[in-house]
User: Fold these one by one.
Assistant:
Number 1:
Amino acid sequence: MRGGSTEQDGGQAARRPPQAWVGGDSPFPRIGQYAFLSDCETTALVAPSGNVEWLCLPRMDSPSVFGAILDRDAGGFRLGPADIMVPAARRYLPGTMVLETSWATPTGWIIVRDLLLIGPWHHEHDHSITHRRAPTDYEADHILLRHVRCVNGEVQLTLDCEPVFDYGQHRGEWRWTEDGYHQAACRGPGGSIEMTLSSDLNIGFEGPRAVARAMMKEGETRFVALSWGNPPPPRSSEEAYPRLVWTAHHWQHWLARGHFPDHPWRSYLERSALTLRGLTYAPTGAIIAAATTSLPETPGGERNWDYRYSWIRDSTFALWGLYSLGFSWEANDFLYFVADAASGRPSLNEEIAAAAVSDGKKAGRG
């Protein structure tokens, strides 16, 4: 996805036939219907059904753990009402990369907010092994947070989390990490990546899936956090909500640095700026062309490349956009990234996402 707006998608939901949400006769949603989440280290795509259908860990260019955007059996992570797959509305919270989905059921309404958490800088007493650019006062928390609030009546909430590692090749095995039913972990083959699922729902296992269900009543909140690495995830809804707010404020403060005209198209410019920032791998300053790989330009076509590279031509347009909108720091970070890559530092390609290198074959289109 390259900046498609869920605000417009959500506003048109009532005028579309139900099958339009799932791509007509295709089991795959249309690419423009996916919501785009980012913490500037990895990205996620969320389908209208509430299913996370693309997530690569721990970086943008890593193998996928949820890959249903490519293969319906390649893993997904759905949180939403039981038996309802078409939301009432979807939008980004204004000025943020926080997705808000409203669900209407015959018995009540819930609102789900999805985001990749960002928090204060973690490395106060050590050095980051990935950061090449000068550190800021914030960085990715390595947590996908899903926060639910019941605003009317009561709703049966369901959770279904099925990671399938390495682009759908290997299913994980779940295990409890503590007494009780509120935290579990799933490890990839060879211990390549381990994810921890924390929630105030009671989590159980059905084969390779972690599942949960609960009846939510008006005024209640629930949370689910999928984490990898540090810092630790929230353990209650009361702890999760302030971290959601911190992340939302971070995006709004970042956006406030830009220069946007007082114009009816301002919101589109702001969303474009947020998308460019979301496609940036903050530790190095690289800007990838898109969050996905292996999606053909035409059905059955050969042009199904990996776009998680910093294509020089695409990045030129991104730089022009960032500079034009007043985000010179981010544009300069990219230039330093290119200088690092061209210098041939031997360890660089092991620690950056979507590397543009001096080798023309890897640098892609020029």
Number 2:
Amino acid sequence: MLTFRRGLNSIALELYGCDNKEQLIGSNPWAFSPPLQPDGMASKEKGMQFILKALNGQPQRFYWLHCKLNDKSQLLHVEVSLNAFEAGDKTFVLAVVRDITGRMKMIEALQNLEKQYKTLVETSLQSICIFQDNKIVYINPFAVEMTGYTEEEVYAMTIEDFCSFIHPNDLKQALDKFDMKRKDTYKLECRLRIKSGEYRWFRSLLKHFIYNEHLAMLVTSIDITEQKKARNQIITSAMLAEDQERKRLATELHDGLGQMLTAISLHLGTFKNIETLDEKTQTNYYTAMKMIKQAMDENRSISHNLMPKAIADYGYVSAVEHLIDDLQSFSSLALEFYTNLTEERLPEHLERNLYRITQEAVNNIVRHSHAASGVVQLMKYPDLLILTIEDDGQGFDTQATSKTDHLGLQSIKTRSEAIGGVLAIDSQPGNGTCITLQISLTDE
């Protein structure tokens, strides 16, 4: 029979809740164990297996669940080492028992915490992905649902596969943010093609961290497509309202003030024998006629700037050519215009906003750049429209300008966003300025 015999120390008595050695001597090991161990095996059966192996000369070390002598519900997590030794003609087994209850409770608490975090992640209405070693190593159910792919398809993807779904106009900034050498936390807004082929806008937060002892990148994302559509609709409506008001004012200036000035000029022109008047009266007359003509020219110029008739009648190309011709009449700036558009017309809202962007940029060159020359270029490709406006002027600090919210640049940014364009402004003090606007012509 296997029983506790001798060598019991005070720590063993305290561990099992005994007052003296007699309470343990003569008892078998499973008398201080629950009926079943955590794996579901009977304590006696499992304990005998370990003891028999130790008696056969195989030292044993294992986890065991004990309990107090007088309170079977108070469980003890222990680590047990068994080694057999000979004493006279008998074989004994030395058991060294180490209480690891505190450690096991800590592990259990961590496991419970991990389960709680996993539950939060698994039920989150945010897309959560972890990239590591050029592949996706974790993706939560909501992210799988958002992409339209199956979980198996997602886990088979590499980072290169994932990046191939990013819209071409957003790819450069996305690749820069995906650089695993960066250690900071940063935000990214880009369009991602889901399985249906539709591009959706996502706002993401990217963070590098250590995952399973290796560097990884955590990406949490929300779908902001509807927000983008709503914002673009508001901006488009505001731009349309502004252009309609410009058109109304231009019409009133032309049909109201313009006609009145013309009538005044005609009436004054009917005066006869001006030469017979005294010198002062003649001077006043000719001055009045000159001022009326200047007022008519200014009225015509303001009306044209508010809403160039060439946009509605002939399109962007003709309007820009007219704009440049007007500038050449009073400015020494050598401004050239290139385009591969001939008689082809763009959608009205696109032409209108492109012209306003071009007009604002060109006016900025004339007023602020001190440039000797500049170029406006509009190139149309099968799926892309690219507008480039550059000059050789003094340039400026784009960061400083953005902080002061420069109205001209803000207008360019707002109109670019209204037509779904990707705007880049490249400028440095002393190095001129280049404005590039890319507009996708594909359905998204």
